[in-house]
Amino acid sequence: MKKVILDCDPGHDDAFGIMLAVRHLEVLGITTIGGNCTLDKVTVNALKVLEVLERSDIPVYPGHSCPMVAPLVTAPQFHGVSGMDGPVLPEPEVQAQKKHAVDYMIETVMNTEDVTLIATGPLTNIAAAINREPRIVERVKELSIMGGSVTYGNWTPAAEFNIFVDPEAAYRVFNSGMHVKMSGVNLTRQCCLTAEHIGKFREIGTKAANLAADLTEFFLDSTVKSAALSGANMHDACAVAWIINPDLIKAADMHIDIELKGELTRGMTVCDYRHLRGTDPMVDLCRVPTMEARGKQPNAEAALELDFDGFLNLLYGTLKSYN
Ligand code: RIB
Ligand code: CA
User: Fold this and answer.
1) Is 146 in the pocket of ligand 1 (CB under 6 A)?
2) Per-position DSSP letters for 257-297, written without gaps between them
3) Are the C-beta atoms of residues 203 and 313 closer than 8 Å to each other?
4) 207-259, pLDDT tens digit by residue?
5) 254-255-256-259 Cα dihedral, nearest 10 degrees
6) Which of these CATH numbers, 1.20.210.10, 3.30.565.10, 3.90.245.10, 2.40.30.10, describes 3-192+230-321?
7) Beta strand 60-62 pairing with 26-32
8) How far is CA 269 from CA 86, 153, 164, in A?
9) Would you say the C-alpha torsion 11, 16, 18, 21 has a positive or negative sign?
10) pLDDT tens, residue by residue, 191-205
């Protein structure tokens, strides 16, 4: 099994990422970051999800409570005041670890071979770990993030929430040399759950499946009300699923950088895919790319196309496998 550290800000869709990761990957630890909600609340939410999964043995390490430079922006209109409104879950019996997430991340990567990092919130912890111990860049097997976009944003027309919250951290990560697999909102909007999927979760009937149903019910309602979308996009689950089964996502190598100064574009992931041949870039990106270098050398893989049926099969099988 692939060894991973999951850095997250649960978060309804982060919770789906945890459910997938715990079943299919060797989760060495979970680290938390202020994002969807304040650090204290997202940390409790991570502990709550692990208790539902009967995996409270997995340690949870709180990280940074705010971005490197900008003030923290949260998303209560999507995730509620608790950061994971909807499911009614008991207070966790297990406490979070006292060690800081960044210390844990550095120690683990420096002493364990082939660790994959998965980040489904703002990249503050990852950037801080790179700043503190640059050698982790070469030691980390790969970094899979939910963040950014090859096309439009969601928090602003140009920027996706995780990158918008801490663009300085994202800039550090994308310019560090670490291999980044980016599941941007252009991809994650293809992972769109509706009432039909809630019904399937209820049929499965395990504790995890009922948690999935409760999470989706709230997230679907908040998403429709706040973003006038037709379904609940389980963004973070895509970044985890890509590590579990790489065949689920078609991607293209490209150079990605982060806009820090733009009045309208701060937090935008500026993706250079000029080297990919074709008239319709979003179509030809999925075909045979020509790697005639035009701009800077690629520093990332950008996810473009999700096998949604394949994702659902993975998700349903995972939910069935829990008690
Ligand atoms: O833009 C979507 C991302 O922001 C997801 O990670 C969601 O959990 C929020 O953190
Ligand atoms: Ca998240």
Assistant:
1) yes
2) EE--S-TTTTT-EEEE-TTS-SSSHHHHTTS-------SSP
3) no
4) 999 999 999 999 999 998 888 778 999 999 999 999 999 999 999 999 999 99
5) -140
6) 3.90.245.10
7) parallel
8) 32, 9, 9
9) negative
10) 999 999 999 999 999
| 118, 140 contact by CB (below 8 A) | no
| Residue whose structure tokens are 């997202």 | 42
User: 278 CA to middle of ligand 1, Å?
Assistant: 31
Q: Does the CA dihedral 191-194-196-199 come out positive or negative? A: positive
Pairing of strands 232-233, 192-193: antiparallel
Of 6, 8, 9, 192, the one to substitute when testing ligand 1's pocket (max ligand atoms within 8 A of C-beta) is: 9
- Supply the residues annotated as catalytic: 235
Helix (H, G, I), strand (E, B) or coil at 164: helix
8 Å CB contact between 258 and 176: no
Return d(Cα 219, Cα 211) in angstroms, integer: 12
